[in-house]
Amino acid sequence: MPEAVFSVKNLTYTIPNEKEPLFHDVSFEVNKGDVVIIRGPSGCGKTTLLKCLSHLNVYSGRISLFGKTPKQYGVPSYRTKVCYVPQRPSMLPGTPMGFLKTVHTFKSRQAYHTSEQDAIESALKLSEHWNITSDLWDKDWTGLSGGEAQRIALAVAVSLPGAVVLLVDEPTSALDEATSEKVENSLIELCDLPESSIEALIWITHSDEQAERVGTRTLTLEKGTGTEGVHLVSA
Ligand SMILES: Nc1ncnc2c1ncn2[C@@H]1O[C@H](COP(=O)(O)OP(=O)(O)OP(=O)(O)O)[C@@H](O)[C@H]1O
Questions:
Q1: Residue 138 belongs to a domain
Q2: A Pfam family matched by this chain, by name (predicted)?
Q3: Overall domain count for the chain
Q4: What is the torsion angle, in degrees rounded to the nearest 10, for the CA atoms of residue 47, residue 44, residue 148 and residue 57?
Q5: Is any ligand 1 atom within 6 A of the Cβ of residue 15?
Q6: Site to substitute for ligand 1 among 11, 12, 15, most atoms within 8 A of C-beta
Q7: What is the ipTM of this complex?
Q8: CB–CB of 141/88 below 8 Å?
Q9: DSSP run (H or E) holding 73
């Protein structure tokens, strides 16, 4: 058996000041080429789970990428490799172009030696394919529609080098059907593109059809009995 790209063991998360965990003992492995769908009813903890996976929430349990923990990588470097793209990035200050340039200067990104110009060209090309015109990159995030902001945030995550596991939270929820299909197709192709560092995706969706189209595996979070909290019921 080849070593898993990404491994999660007994992941348990408790909301601050709550007694019982939101979810507990979640364990799964992700292999190269996987598009792992995360399902579960609204409010069961899917977004919180993705935030734990990219070390944005405090959790118990063990998460590792190629056998190394976030602390062993150093958290900023780990977050570049296990990259979380939120559903709604509209709270960001400034413009998407400013954001792309700032993220490009981070030490954890500089390790990949991509020029700023290459990163910009790559992001503009991908977003244009997703019907985002270049002028939108210089508009304030607050002036963008939900769907525009969502596609631009995805283009930034995919175009900057370094991500190995991409965590996407309902990445097409604000898009019409035709645009959604384009974004979907681009995302699932990433694992096979020689120029992409991405080896697997973990993808939250509420759509059965989308899960069927893009997923290679499905994990379902379900509420247990009594105060058990949410746990993983299928893999
Ligand atoms: N830091 C926190 N403080 C308070 N409540 C929190 C915190 N983190 C998560 N929650 C709560 O945990 C629950 C799960 O939230 P989460 O966004 O993970 O659910 P979800 O399954 O992604 O929902 P949806 O499908 O509606 O997007 C919610 O009730 C949320 O308010």
A1: yes
A2: ABC_tran
A3: 1
A4: -20
A5: yes
A6: 15
A7: 0.96
A8: no
A9: helix 70-73
Mind giving me the DSSP string for 156-199? HHHHSTT-SEEEEESTTTTS-HHHHHHHHHHHHHGGG-TT----
pLDDT tens for 155-188 read 999 888 889 999 999 999 989 999 999 999 999 9
pLDDT of residue 123: 92
42 lines ligand 1 (CB under 6 A): yes
Query: Between vectors from CA 175 to CA 170 and to CA 180, what angle results, nearest 5°?
Result: 80
Q: Give a yes or no: residue 1 inside a domain.
A: no
Q: Is 45 in the pocket of ligand 1 (CB under 6 A)?
A: yes
Give domain status of residue 180, yes or no.
yes
Q: Estimate the share of the chain in helix, then strand, then coil, as percent rounded to the nearest 5.
A: 40, 25, 40
**Residue range of the domain that includes 155:** 6-234
pLDDT digits (tens, 9 = 90+) for 41-99: 899 899 999 999 999 999 999 999 999 999 999 999 999 999 999 887 766 789 999 98
What CATH number is associated with residue 180? 3.40.50.300
The residue whose CA has the least distance to atom 18 of ligand 1 is 45
Please say whether the beta carbons of 130 and 171 come within 8 A. Answer: no
Give the residue, by CA position, lying nearest to ligand 1 atom 17: 47
Q: How far apart are CA 18 and CA 37, in angstroms?
A: 28
**Location of structure tokens 């035709």:** 178
Task: Give ∠ CA 28-31-32 in degrees, rounded to 5.
Answer: 155
